[in-house]
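Homework help board

Subject: predicted structure for assignment chain

Our instructor gave us this sequence and asked us to write out the predicted structure in token form, then describe one feature. I got the tokens but I'm not sure how to describe them. Can anyone check?
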Amino acid sequence: METTRQNKISRLLQKELSEIFLAQTRKTHGTIVSVSIVRISPDLSIAKVYLSIFPSEKAQATIDSINASAREIRYELAQKVRFQLRKIPELRFYLDDSLDYIDKIDNLLHQ
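My token output:
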């Protein structure tokens, strides 16, 4: 069960990371990256960030690229939240494929 502090930090990180990815995806035409959910560890040292990527064909390559530049993203995040957080958690990015799963179930039900 997450504490109130974990929830507040998760929402803050989700908002700020969404803005960072929005600025980056404006440069890469044809790919949309959105932050689905952020889960933070109880000691506030690790943040698991789940990303939805459209189109899903480019998802794995995009996640690999984002994981390769995680340090730069963490630095940019630190610049945005430096007055709210003392220590910026380590970022780990994962693919959120729940929309693909819902679409697959929907297609199976229509058959």
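Reply (TA_rk): Your tokens look well-formed. For the description, you could write something like this. The chain has one domain: 4-110. That's the kind of observation they're looking for.
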